[in-house]
Amino acid sequence: MSKPLADRLRPEKIEDMVGQQHLLGEGKPLRNIILSGNIPNMIFYGPSGTGKTTLARIIANATNKKLHKLNGTNASISDIKDIVAELDTLAAPNGILLYLDEIQYFNKKQQQSLLEYIESGAITLIASTTENPYFYVYSAVLSRSTVFEFKSVNETEILPAVRRGFEFLENESGIKAEIEDGVCEHIAMSCGGDVRKSLNFCELAFLSANEENGVKKITLESIESLTQKNSFRYDRAGDEHYDVISAYQKSMRGSDTDAALHYLARLLEAGDLPSATRRLMVCACEDVGLAYPQIIPIVKSCVDIALSVGLPEAKIPLADAVILVCTAPKSNSGDAAITAAMADVEKGNFGRIPRQLQNKHFDGEDNQNKGQFYLYPHSYPNHYVKQQYLPDEIKNARYYEAGDNKFEQAAKEYWDKIKGKK
């Protein structure tokens, strides 16, 4: 069985990679590291199909290191021992680059088995994960590695890869492809930022098309059937994109569940997971906020699940989160408070930090009133004591006003009582 098109067409140079320009563009950090030839231990974090494995192979080739690839779902400590056995032998004269896919499935003991070798430089580790590495990677491994976040690839960047895929299939098969207008754009839009998936669609379209007189006709209708997507007006580079995401967030803010789900469906139909997840998290913080603060980690968890499983299953956790945001009580007091505080800072309304709050416990000889005078709140009743925290210049500034919801009003009532306010 032949390899999938994505493997047959895998880039061999950084210049041929699709997306990740924030890391691999001219002058960007990861590109500079690779070009230096001095490769540190790294963790690639991001969704599937964004180039993590491809870049690991390119790095291995560029550094003349022997590449070993393990998958955290089925690899064991014995696999690592087999790799270590190759060190300082003719099998790996320039060292080993270990690409460990899905490192989050390695338990603590398995991850610890790598420490001695990655710390000494005998093995260069490039690990990948679709989960947040700060939660799933053992801290000792994390502290010896640099984390780089890979992002979903936008359709503009995917489009050249789709066209290159069809061209490759034509050359490989000797059969010309007659591609209807809109086909490449639809594939780029329907793959959810996953380059591998977009090339899979190309191959499916080519293989399933009828051949007549040495020509395969690939129609938009056939592509829509293969991708199980309906074509509708949605241009990420134009006004329609911003109209949809604006309506999406405003519907959640306005507590209209049906409308919010409708706009979520339009985003998902277009494969636009990044916009759907970003606006959802913003809305949870900005529009629900302190009225129901537990919603923030809940929504973040739903987003992580969605990005991990990808489309089409991503629709389920995202729908749960959107309904929760819509039906939750609303408060923008946190957003209003930080906006007001930042406005003061931007205007230059700040002064010297009060002596009792400074991070030092000694005074120079020129200070006639020695001592920090900080009052430790936990040493006082109710863990509170009145003292000045803001600089003298703005000591009476007020930024936060409690919202009219149960959570904030309960907190306000508690502190009014403690602070002796009526």
Chain-wise SSE layout:
Layout: H1 5-8, H2 21-24, H3 29-36, E1 42-45, H4 52-63, E2 66-71, H5 77-84, E3 96-101, H6 108-112, H7 115-120, E4 123-129, H8 133-136, H9 139-143, E5 146-149, H10 155-173, E6 176-179, H11 183-190, H12 195-208, E7 211-212, E8 215-218, H13 220-227, H14 239-253, H15 257-269, H16 273-288, H17 295-309, H18 315-327, H19 333-346, H20 406-418
Parallel strand pairs: 1-4, 1-5, 2-3, 3-4, 6-8
Antiparallel strand pairs: 7-8
Helix pairs in contact: 10-11, 10-12, 11-12, 11-13, 14-15, 14-16, 15-18, 16-17, 16-18, 17-18
Major sheet attributes: 5 strands, parallel
Write down the overall geometry: globular
Provide the spatial order of strands within the biggest beta sheet.
Answer: 2-3-4-1-5
CA(first)-CA(last) distance:
78 Å
Number of strands: 8
| Estimated helix fraction | 40-55%
Radius of gyration: 28 Å
Spans of at least 5 consecutive residues whose pLDDT stays below 50 are 229-235
Average of pLDDT: 84
Structural class: alpha/beta
Beta-strand fraction estimate: 5-15%
Helix count, DSSP H or I runs of 4 or more residues: 20
N-to-C SSE string, H for helix and E for strand = HHHEHEHEHHEHHEHEHHEEHHHHHHHH
Short description:
The chain is built from 20 helices and 8 strands. It has 422 residues and is of the alpha/beta class.
If you had to describe this structure to a student in words, what would you say it looks like?
The chain is α/β, with parallel strands linked by helices. 48% of the residues lie in helices and 9% in strands. It contains 20 helices and eight strands. The strands form two sheets. Strands 2-3-4-1-5 form a five-stranded parallel β-sheet, sandwiched between helices. Helix 10 crosses helix 11, helix 11 runs parallel beside helix 13 (220-227) and helix 17 (295-309) packs antiparallel against helix 18. The chain is globular, with a radius of gyration of 28 Å. The termini are far apart.
